[in-house]
Design a protein that fits this description.
Blueprint lengths: L7 H9 L5 H14 L6 E4 L1 H9 L15 E5 L26 H8 L3 E6 L33 H8 L5 E6 L5 H7 L2 E4 L19 E6 L2 H11 L29 E5 L9 H16 L3 E5 L7 H16 L18 H12 L2 H14 L5 H21 L5 E5 L16 H5 L6 H6 L3 E9 L2 E9 L4 H13 L15
Parallel strand pairs: 2-3, 2-4, 7-8, 7-9
Antiparallel strand pairs: 1-3, 4-6, 5-6, 5-10, 9-11, 10-11
Helix pairs in contact: 2-3, 7-15, 9-11, 9-12
């Protein structure tokens, strides 16, 4: 019996009925990762440890953890003790952390098994998974097409059925956009809901860990384990964590969903617009009501993000200097040359580009004009959301302006073209709000994602709205044909 494309809920039934053991389940997951190695979605497989840990799993028959014995993949910027963590960068290509990130620790504490670390855009900087030192990840739906980024390896591993779920991080859409391109579900929680400790930082005020899975119910299962206050993370929220499965089946009757008038959907492909209208009709049939709302400053989201994120990346990546850990250039004559050569040889082009932009924005004479001004606009965007959520429960947008695209077809000559892929997702990060992407059809045989944005700490409502939609549709059951990757 193959476990490929099974959800966490389905795998739990197999484990409870003893149709498969945890060892067999995890070994098949490893074998699938090897079988579809051409996808390039894994940087490191954790084979020996997986064998050992899965053999030791003893499920509590009366009250089993829903993650006990379940194989998961971790994005390769979560530190894992004794297991290589690279951020898909040459500068960390041999880094083995002495500790494990809190988010991973919590998942493993619930009984899950980390089968490996997934490929990603270098230091999470990219929207296509083409900036990785270890090469591009293929979209399981079409060879030579991007899976989205930066959590492309995690999204591809789930979409290919290698694992039922994986971790990702979302700085400007890096969970939701690859989830959309790969036809799976991806959730970015409220900023601070999940600890960032042990997660290698890109932009500290924007980064947020979250789950990618086959459906919203599985995302809720992971979120239950990943959430909670962590004293080691000063940005961690010390607030009540509900059981995200408890109200997941509630009726959507009377729920108000906002459509943002500043997003002109007429610019999108006709078929993308059609899928969006079909999903609106589906939600209306489920009892939801749509209201047009205004977010006057949302058009400034992309320039605001690309002032703040590079500035914070410039600060965070200054620790990679060739001295304490990571790649170290050889044959240098002094400390200054060591810094320059180690960084020049260790970082890729996109990372260097963002460091330079960020350093400029933070430099004397420009801080007030760029970084400070961007933070002021960010507050205006957050205020707009606060006002809108007085009249609606959720907001709905496309996740991405387009479906997955061919390698090297965007951003090679003009990086801004690729930056605009995050047009619909960035604002939720700037405001620290939760958002989810769910599959809602296909265009030209490639998946299309639908985004729902919720108010602060309302992941329960997002998961409810996504789950009820999925109970009444089959889009999340679609599977790619993987013949080209064997």
């Amino acid at each position: 019996m193959s476990i490929q494309f099974k959800s966490i809920t389905e795998l739990n039934e197999l484990l409870d009925n003893k149709a498969i053991s945890a060892s067999e389940l995890n070994q098949e997951s490893i074998q699938l990762a090897k079988k579809y190695s051409e996808l390039n979605c894994f940087v490191t497989l954790n084979e020996e440890n997986t064998k050992k840990k899965s053999a030791a799993i003893k499920r509590n028959q009366k009250n089993p953890s829903l993650l006990s014995g379940i194989p998961l993949a971790q994005k390769d910027l979560f530190c894992t003790e004794g297991l290589r963590t690279t951020c898909s960068s040459k500068i960390l290509s041999n880094f083995i952390p002495p500790y494990t990130a809190t988010a991973v620790e919590k998942l493993e504490g619930a009984g899950s098994i980390t089968i490996g670390k997934t490929n990603m855009d270098e230091f999470a900087m990219g929207s296509s998974n083409e900036t990785s030192f270890f090469g591009s990840v293929h979209n399981p739906w079409k060879k030579g097409f991007v899976p989205g980024g930066s959590s492309g390896g995690s999204a591809a591993a789930v979409a290919a059925g290698i694992v039922p779920a994986a971790t990702g991080t979302d700085t400007g859409g890096s969970i939701r956009q690859p989830a959309a391109h790969c036809g799976i579900t991806g959730l970015k929680p409220t900023y601070g809901r999940i600890s960032r400790w042990g997660m290698i930082a890109f932009a500290s005020s924007l980064d947020q860990a979250g789950p990618l899975a086959r459906n919203a119910e599985d995302c809720a299962i992971l979120l239950n384990s990943m959430s909670g206050y962590d004293s080691k993370d000063t940005t961690s929220l010390n607030s009540y964590v509900p059981n995200f499965l408890e109200n997941i089946n509630q009726s959507l009757k009377g729920k108000k969903i906002g459509i943002i008038k500043e997003f002109d959907l007429s610019d999108l492909d006709t078929e993308v617009q059609e899928r969006f209208e079909e999903s609106k009709n589906a939600y209306e049939n489920l009892g939801a009501e749509f209201i047009e709302v205004s977010l006057p400053n949302i058009s400034a989201s992309v320039p605001t993000y690309y002032s703040i994120a590079p500035a914070e990346c410039s600060s965070n990546l200054s620790r990679f200097d060739g001295v304490r850990f990571g790649y170290r250039a050889e044959n240098t004559v002094d400390l200054n040359e060591l810094y320059i050569k180690s960084r020049s040889e260790g970082f890729g082009d996109e990372v260097k580009r963002r460091i330079l932009i960020g350093t400029y924005a933070l430099s004397a004479g420009y801080y007030d004009a760029y970084y400070k001004k961007a933070q002021q606009v960010r507050r205006l965007i957050k205020n707009d959301f606060d006002n809108v959520f007085k009249s609606v429960d959720l907001l709905m947008t496309p996740t991405s302006p387009s479906t997955a695209f061919k390698f090297e077809s965007k951003g090679t000559q003009n990086p801004v073209e690729l930056y605009l892929e995050d047009l619909f997702t960035i604002s939720a990060n700037l405001a620290g709000l939760p958002a989810i992407s769910i599959p809602h059809g296909q265009v030209n045989s490639l998946p299309v994602g639908l985004q729902l944005i919720g108010n602060f700490l309302r992941e329960d409502l997002l998961l409810n709205a996504a789950h009820v939609f999925q109970k009444n549709s089959d889009f999340h059951h679609a599977k790619p044909n993987l013949e080209d990757f064997k």
